[in-house]
Amino acid sequence: MKKIVLSTALVCMTLFTTAIAGNKSENSNAETKLATKKMITGKVIDPVTNEAIAGATVSINGKKVFTDFEGNFEVENPKNKSCEMTVSMISYSTKTVVLDVEKKQELVIDLKR
Questions:
Q1: pTM, whole model, 2 decimals?
Q2: Structure confidence by residue, pLDDT tens digits, 43-91
Q3: To which H or E segment does residue 16 belong?
Q4: How far is CA 88 from CA 65, 67, 73, 91, 102, in A?
Q5: Pick from 41, 14, 20: which is nearest to 101 by CA?
């Protein structure tokens, strides 16, 4: 009886160890992918009041994100050498900016009424 319990415990420990090792390698791959992604970050403001514009739409190559309550946004950098970013908000003029994706950029976009 002791041999069966010991064997079962050994099998369970082996399966558990294998599962953890597999999970660590998956996490390592995910962390590597995140580290290689380049992000475009910035803030959208009203140039007259210098206040942040919350809820503005920021679009690059069909991927859209919205600014937070402080006007900040973060969008994944496309793989092209250059791209167009479009920023829009109701009651403001839409603005299109050409970006050089090779450079890390922190942008301040001013939308005019």
A1: 0.66
A2: 999 999 999 999 999 998 889 999 999 999 998 876 666 889 999 999 9
A3: helix 2-36
A4: 11, 10, 13, 9, 24
A5: 41
Instruction: Count the neighbouring beta carbons within 10 Å of the beta carbon of residue 73.
Output: 22
**Kind of pairing, strands 39-45 and 106-110?**
parallel
Q: Which residues lie below 8 Å from residue 101, measured CB to CB, with a gap of 6+? A: 38, 40, 77, 78, 79, 80, 81, 82, 83
> 83: which residues sit within 8 A by CB, 6+ positions away?
60, 61, 98, 99, 101
Would you state the structure tokens that stand for residue 112, as one six-digit string? Answer: 């005019």
pLDDT of residue 107: 92
Distance between CA atoms of residues 101 and 78, nearest Å = 7
Residue in this structure with the two tokens 């580290």, named with its chain if needed: 35
Specify the range with the lowest mean pLDDT, choosing from 1-5, 73-77, 106-110.
1-5
